[in-house]
Structure formats: C-alpha cells, structure tokens
Amino acid sequence: MKKNILFFLSFITISLVSCKNDGGVWLGEGESNGKSYLFGTESEIELLKGLAKAYSEKDADKLSAYYSDEYMTEKRKKNYSRWLESMESITMTPYKIIPLHQKDGDFKQIIAWSKEERISKNGSYEKLDLMEQFRLNNEGKVIGFKQWKAIDSVNFGMSFGGKFFGNKKGEYVGRPFVFSNRNETKMIESMVESYNKMDVEGMKNVFADEFTLNDYRGQKATYKKSDLENFFKPFKSVDWKINAIIPIKILNTDAASGVFVKGSESRVFKNGKKWNKDLMEIYYFNLDGKISSMEQFAK
Prior knowledge:
This protein is of the alpha+beta class. The protein is 22% helix and 40% strand. It folds into two domains: 22-149, Nuclear Transport Factor 2, Chain: A (Roll), CATH 3.10.450; 178-298, Nuclear Transport Factor 2, Chain: A. The strands form two sheets. Strands 7-8-11-12-13-14-9-10 form an eight-stranded mixed sheet, covered by helices on one side. A six-stranded antiparallel sheet has the order 1-2-3-4-5-6. The radius of gyration is 29 Å and the shape is elongated. Residues 11-17 have low confidence and may be disordered.
C-alpha cells in the first residue's frame, strides 16, 4: 500500500513538472522577439469586468479610474464624456477575457471579446462584436487600447464606402457612406403595401406632417399629410413592385438618412387610361424617422 502511495505521489509530481505554464510567442521586432506569454491574474479579469460596467453605466469618472493619468488626459476624458453622453444607452458585455504577461518581461495586456450595443440619442443604432486589447502598466492601469471589429465571414464587403461630394463645401464633404439601420427598409415595405391597397391611413404613418415631393417631371411641391386623402381618387388600381431598397447615411453624422428605392409602377385610371414607369426614388428620413422629402426619376 505504501509503495502504491509513493508511486501515485511521484506520478503527480512528474505531471506537474512536465506541464508548461507558458506558451505563444512574440514575433515582432525588438528585445521581446521570441518571448512567450504567461496567463495573467484573476484581478486583471475583474479589472476588465469593472471597466465594462463603468462604460455601460456611462460613468466617465468611474471609467477614468481604470486608466493611467498619462493615457486619460483631460482632453481624452472630455472626449470620452462627450461620447458617453451622446448615447441613450450603451452596453459592453464581455464573453471572453484573457489576461497575458510576457515571460521575462514587463509587458502586460488583457485581450477581451465582447458584444456591444449602442443606441445614440440622435437615433443611430449599432450592434458590434469586438475584440479589444488593453495594455497595462505595473500598477494595473490601462496605458493603451486597440479595437477590432468582426466582419461577416460570408463576404469581404466593407461596412462603409462611396464618397459624399455635396453641392457646396462643408464639413461632410469627402466622407464615405454607411448603411442606416433605423427601420427604414421595413417602413418602405409597409408604405408600398399600403400604397397597393390604396390605404391612405397606412401611407400617413411613414410621412412627416409636412413633406416635399420632387417628381420625375421636375415639378416640386410641398404637401401635408391631409393632402394624401385625395391621392388615390383618380385611380381604379395601382401596382408598385420593388426591386431594391438601400438605406444609407453619411458617416459620423446625425441619424437623418436617404433611402434609394428602385422599382416599377402601374396605375389604371378610372377613365381607362394606363400609366407604367420604371422608377428610381430617393426618400429622405428626418431625425424623427419620418419621410420629409422625396426625389423621383422615371423612364
């Protein structure tokens, strides 16, 4: 029995000694080239959790306490405060946290993966899957930060593109476009459905109290919602078919957006006349998420 116990203890000792407690490698330039990594501490995991909580609570003072004075300058703190104040709500939910120390070195970092949801006061909405690096000093304060955003692996498209030129010089000239996500697509679909039913009340739901129409003939007019009451009176039937709906906005601006709608429309008048057009239309949504104007092109 004694021999069995001694054998078992020897086996455990050998197993523990043979287990590696470091791994990975730094392949970049400098003195750290070739060095491996060790896992960090439990306190660093708790640090990241606390940082995420302060961020989600929009508490700039509490958030600043996790950063070094050299990193969190007064200017940067004001920018953080302004950013958090611009949000109706913001949540950072980490789902993987890995603290790492470089073996035989002072380099410390926390790699964190998190889901982040941003609802801005101007109506903008973002839902992100992020990987972030937080570099730490010896006091456990963040001294550097990098962020990466996951891209849909099915394709290699970018989340922004194109370029805004404008009719005159301004701060937005040169910026790319991004997709807008304030329910515009669903609202256009709902409008088309109501249109084909000649449902005036359904149509009213998507329009601002006053809106401007620039039609394909070059005629421009401003209407009120009440003016829609008479829109369908000349028609026996209408049929609007949609080919594409593309909602976009200029990067880093308020939530106002423009929606390109391509389709075709047929109208049958009560007097027997027929009207058929291929249409390209741009619907402009205001900050309240309602259509405030429309431009129409036809062939």
